[in-house]
Predict the structure.
Amino acid sequence: MRRRVSDPAIRVSVVSLGCPRNLVDSEVLVGKLAGGPFALQASARGADVVVINTCGFIDAARAESIDVICEMLALKAQGDVKGVVVAGCMVARYGRALARELPDVDAFLDISDYGDAPGLFRTIRARVPGEGSPARAAAGTPFFGGGRPRDARTDLTRARLTLPHTAYLRVSEGCDRRCSFCAIPQIRGRQRSRPLPVLVAEAENLAASGVKELCLVAEETTAYGRDLGTGGRLGLAQLLSALGGIDGLRWIRLLYAHPGSFRPELVAEIRDNDKVVKYVDMPIQHGDDEILKRMKRGTPAAMIRRLVADLRREVPGITLRTTVLVGFPGETERRFENLLALLEEMRFERLGCFTFSREEDTAAHALRQRPAARVAARRRGRVLALERRVIAERNAALVGRTIPVLIDRAAGGEAIGRGEGDAPDIDCSVRVRGAGLKAGTIVQVRVTGARGYDLEGKVQSSAGARR
Ligand code: SF4
């Protein structure tokens, strides 16, 4: 579709890559356009400005970001897009080096300065065809921005890019840990928790706009409040309790927990707070003590086992999701078997598995004895095979049971939804048969079977199908 230059609105398309935390940043960026002559569009074709909010924490993520940038630059060369703006973690991490590699990109927006986006997009739109990048010209360098840095802690403006009934709430930014394989602290800085009243106000706004499910995200959600100087009186448990009092919210979901900052009162809050779904996403990264030590995780396998046992005892039926990393330097076959043994024992209902990516500026970058890529890939395959077995057994055990399901999409007597054990975009789903199903409602579904990772079921009652 050729760009309609006569269209008064500045047409903007945003490609948000990486994790939900990056998606929240994309939402903040789009929120900056509110009230201006901007029109958001899903497709890049025909846009005046395409923004690629990049992810830069491992090889695969960077490769995907570069592929998308090149795709958009090709559209620009064809005249289907006027300007290409790169934002996000790759800008924060590689800044000027990235600009040198990508001379056709119009501008780069750092994570902290979206405040200038409206002005920048107007400048790009106003450019005369064939003229060079005014943004580059204006800034004298490929960078634009650095005006009014966004204070992530108090900034509430954002436009949502998720389904209307589900939203992410970023409770803090940055991380104080130094896991040896991870570059995120270099990209996002030290932990800065957002004040509780600000988070409650944002959650109230979201609930008022129709959000039913609120997913809490951060680099380390369980460390929430540690930097707010309350001597430990304010933490994630207190935040969950406050959010539990908000009308309209039905499900509050905990993502990016860390076993090393999981306090006992948090276990009790998950158990006792009806709105907190019985689900925890808690990356453990490995199960062998020597590897966990080399990863600087600070969580020996015994601690992980104890915490999982506490959660399963205190919160019956809880769904535990984790993430592990294979192929880390020093991961011998025996140490890998220790990981497998822990996973076999813990039986995490949901699991993601990555292979080690050697990241510059991280402590693990210099480590030797890295297993060959094919060995890491084979090990990842074994972990995922184990997980398929765990999910198949769990799904079989759910057949005949009735579970609450949040409907994400519905059409013609069929719907796709998620149970309490399924976070958006990363977990499994439930195919529901039934008449009059509506997105954003929670219905009772009798599980009739499973297809691969997903469950199938029939709506029992829309009792509880309150909007
Ligand atoms: S907890 Fe570790 S892996 Fe997670 S963001 Fe912080 S340094 Fe990275």
